[in-house]
Every structure is written in structure tokens, then in C-alpha cells.
Amino acid sequence: MLYHLSELFPFAPWSVFQYITFRSAGAAVTALLLSMLLGPGLIRWLGDLKFRQDYRPKDVKEGADATAAAADLAKRGTPTMGGILIVLVLDLSALLWARWNPFVLLTLLAVVVLAGLGFYDDWLKVTKQNSEGAKSHLKLYVQVALGLGVAIYLWLLPSTAPLINDIQVPFIKNPVLVGVPIIGILLTVIVITGASNSVNLTDGMDGLAVGCTLITTLVFLVMTYIAGNVIFAHYLLVPYVEGAGELTVICAAMLGACLGFLWFNCHPAEVFMGDTGSLALGGALGIMAVLIHQPFVLLLAGAVFVAEALSVMLQVGWFKFTRRHYGEGRRIFLMSPLHHHFRKKGLPESKIVVRFYIVALLCAVVALSTLKVR
Which of 95, 193, 252, 366 would bridge with 28, disulfide CB 3.0–4.6 Å? Predict the structure, then answer.
């Protein structure tokens, strides 16, 4: 909005709104301040509505299980659906500071759709007082439909068709496959759906999902700016995507929103984001990876999310395989997703979260290295 106003008044000081860097900084600060301002009231409101996380009491056992059970009992009654705060301040900040183009609107639309899906899932959990929520196939149908819609829209536009037709991988300057729209559409669906679900699976400890999302978003803050700058893109041999620079403003707004939410979500958490926030944040990362023609970079930058998702897939797959062949299911991990495995081993929650942050930072460095190693 501010950018479009600056076009109507093209003189100082309005001209400063023409710069992506200035507007990105403004979006980050705005999102952070809005989070700090609206957060306490929203948490009280969620508590008054009894939108609370219900942890069922566990049998207290010796050792690590006793510690985990005591920690879970302490979290009972904590408000959930805090993702409303993230999505609200992200959208408001992005709409205020970004230059509206199809990339911006497409990303924000995906965020709203996935937030709505997550809200429905959270609503069922708090009203039925169990952890089942929406049917898994329903969530998958919505995510796949969203991914298909995004892919087909990009493919039908001549200016964005290469994002679907050509397949780009890290460390290689030229596309590895050209003119393969079917593969591109399938990849787009997998990236958006996978990213959304992976962040959702990571959201199991105070500050874990939002902190790792914040670190991954830092990578895409750099990547989107470079992808939208013709000079930097050509110099670093990455695909130039006209208009993608405005996604930098969205990344900045995500950073501010995540930082603000982390203020309330760090241990001990005052509020949980729920599926309302985790599905939306994951989907935002997925669609931005597609829009800058770097879908596989997300595998490196978000390796923590990938590991969490793989741990669930391996655990379920191995359990079913061994039950079919040996008569009883066996496990690879003590519990999945992966962060619960370390919890079962007796590590404190805060230590697990910080160590996951460290791994996420290392993965971010590796992802950014793809800009020079080509």
C-alpha cells in the first residue's frame, strides 16, 4: 500500500518507499510491534474462549518418562490457535509494505487458505477435547488442491511458465530438466504440501517450530532478494524472476511475526500456534521456494523439518512392515517426530530446542552456500 502511495507522490520523503530494503525493514518492525501489541490481548481472548491445549494425564513412570509426564501436565490449559496472531500480523504488514503483484497475492492467499485449514483442525480438537482434529485425508486434499492451483496458475502465464516447465537444483547454474511441466506441477504440489506438513510435525515443543521457521525464513529473505534483482541474479548464476523481490518483504514480515510470537511461545509457552500457524508458515516457505525457482533449496534450508517428517514416515513404515512380517510392530525411534525421541531419552525440552536451532543455523549456512557453489 505504501509503495503505491509513493507512486502518487514521487518526491522525498515518499521516494524512500520505492526501495525493497527499506520496505522490508519496515515490514519486519511493523510485524514485530503488532505482535507485541496484540499478543497479550489475543492470549487472554483465546483463554476466555477456552481454546486451550488439552494434554491428557500420563502414567508417571521412573526416569525420563516421569520428567516428560510432569512437563506435559504443566502445559495443560495453555491457549492454542496462536497462529491467528502470526497470520494476522504477517498479512497486515505485507499488505502495508509490499508492492502488490501476483507473487505477493498468491503467497498471502496460500497462507490464508492453510491457516483456515489449520483453524478448522484446531477447532475440532478444542471442541471435542481430543487430539484427532480433522481427518488426515481432508487436510491432504486441501493442500494438494492448493498446490495444483498454484502450479497450474504459474504454468498458464507465459511470464511464469518456466518456473513449472524447467527444474532447477542447487549447486548447478542451469536447469537439469527443461520443458517438463508434468514433473514441475508434481514437484510444486509436493513442495507446498510437504513443507506445510513438515512444519506442522515440528510444532511439538515450546518455541521449536517458530524458531526453526525464523531461521529458514532468513535464508529465503536473502534468496528472494537476489532472485528479484537482475544484477545479483546474473552475477550469482541463479534464476532471475521478475517481481520475486517483493517476496523479500513477505519474508521480512514473517521474521517479525515469528520473533513476536516467539516472545510468547518460548519455554514455558504462554500460547501455542496450533495447526493454524504451523500449516500456514510451512506453506508460505513452500510456495516462496517455488516462486523463486529454488524448490530444492528448501530441503537444505529446512533440513530440520525434513528430518522431522522423515522420522515419522520411517517410524510408521517400519512399524507396519515388521508387524506384517514378524507379528509385532517394531520402532526405529523411541517416539516420533524426532524431537520426541530425544525427549524420551531424557533430554530437557529447552536443550532439545536450542540444539535444533543450532542444526537449523548450520543448514541455513549450507543453503546459502549454494549461491556461490555453482
Answer: 252
How far is it, in rounded angstroms, from Cα 321 to Cα 328? 9
Cα 175 to Cα 10: distance, rounded to the nearest angstrom: 40
Q: 213: Cβ–Cβ under 8 A, 6 or more apart, which residues?
A: 199, 254, 258, 281, 282, 285
* Segment 152-173, tens digit of pLDDT: 999 999 999 999 999 999 988 8
Kindly report, residue by residue over 51-77, the tens digit of the pLDDT: 876 645 444 444 445 555 556 666 778
Residues above pLDDT 90, as percent of the chain = 78
Nearest alpha carbon to residue 277 among 349, 207, 360? 207
pLDDT at 127: 84
Q: Which residues are CB-neighbours of 335 under 8 A, at least 6 positions away? A: 341, 343, 344
Cα–Cα dist 341/358, whole Å: 18
Residues 358 and 299 sit within 8 Å (Cβ to Cβ): no
Cα–Cα distance between 135 and 159 in angstroms, integer?
A: 37
Nearest CA to 208 among 39, 337, 333, 79? 337
How does pLDDT run across 329-363, given as a tens digit for each residue? 899 999 999 999 999 999 999 999 999 999 999 99
Residue 372 pLDDT level (bands cut at 50, 70, 90): confident
In sequence order, the 6+-apart residues with CB closer than 8 A to the CB of 160 are 102, 154, 241
Ordered by start, the domain boundaries in the chain are 2-369
User: For residues 80 and 31, what is the distance between their CA atoms, to the nearest angstrom?
Assistant: 20
CA 354/CA 49 separation, integer angstroms? 32
Q: CB–CB of 227/81 below 8 Å?
A: no
Which amino acid does the sequence have at 303? A
